[in-house]
Amino acid sequence: MASAGLPDGVELGPTLAILFAIFLVTVGLRALPFAALRFFRESRLVAWLGLSMPVGVMAILVLYTVIEGGDSPTGFVPVMIALVFTVALHVWRRSATLSILLGTVFYAVLVNVVF
User: Fold this and answer.
1) How far apart are CA 24 and CA 30, in angstroms?
2) Total-model pTM
3) Cα–Cα distance list, 110 to 64, 69, 85, 99 (Å)
4) Which of 27, 34, 39, 104 has its CA 20 to 30 A from that of 4?
5) SS3 state of residue 11
6) Spatial contact of 78 and 110, defined as CB atoms under 8 Å apart
7) Per residue of the chain (115 residues), what is the pLDDT tens digit?
């Protein structure tokens, strides 16, 4: 007979122990960056990463989209339209976050609704 709604052969004690271990690891991994933050506040490396990461994210998204977009039935048309839109948006607003977010959404709409 199952206890606490668990299937036959599954005991509550070991299940709770496993869940508690998972909880501890998850909380630890989420808290670790904040605990380590005090060591990196004045780091030149972290400052450089803060400046270069948006460019890196954009480059990876563009490469992935261009490479994978060529395999779609519509070809490169939605890729190039979305690329022009994203570059124009970035030149106009100078916001990497806005460019990445709206460019990705615009491409998804083009691929799934328009083409």
Assistant:
1) 10
2) 0.54
3) 16, 12, 11, 16
4) 27
5) coil
6) yes
7) 456 788 888 889 999 999 999 999 999 999 998 888 888 888 888 888 888 888 888 788 788 878 887 777 777 888 899 989 999 999 999 998 899 899 989 988 998 888 7
